[in-house]
Amino acid sequence: MLAIMMVAAPLAGHLALPALAALLILTAWYMSEPHKWRGYMSERPSDRFLLLLTLVLTVMTDLTVAIGVGVAVGLAIRLRRRHDPPADWHVPER
Cα(8)–Cα(79) distance, rounded to whole angstroms? Predict the structure, then answer.
């Protein structure tokens, strides 16, 4: 049993990262709610820009950078719209 563990343990260590990567990809896919993308793309151009910018930065850089830039750009967009009348709010579908 010890000999099998000595041989198999290093190989098992290489299987953990691909399995974790697959799990993270599936989790990210379901968190992004693909059935709502059509609705996201019908929003204002500035909102679409913010969504796509954050998506690209998350893939191309670090998640921390993407969140920081997304919050900053979102705040700038919100401040630019502060004099616009608020849109009608509706309860989201679940």
Answer: 58
CB-CB contact of 57 with 66 (8 Å): yes
Q: What is the pLDDT of residues 46-77, one digit of tens each?
A: 989 998 999 889 889 988 999 999 999 999 99
> Residue 61 carries which DSSP code?
S
Q: Which of these, 55, 50, 58, 57, lies nearest to 77 by C-alpha position?
A: 50
For residues 2 and 6, give the distance between their C-alpha atoms in angstroms, rounded to a whole number.
6
Q: Give per-residue pLDDT as tens, 17-37.
A: 778 788 888 887 887 788 888
Q: Which amino acid is at 37?
A: W
CA distance 51 to 43: 10
User: What is the widest separation between alpha-carbon atoms in the chain?
Assistant: 72
Contact 80, 53 (CB under 8 A): no
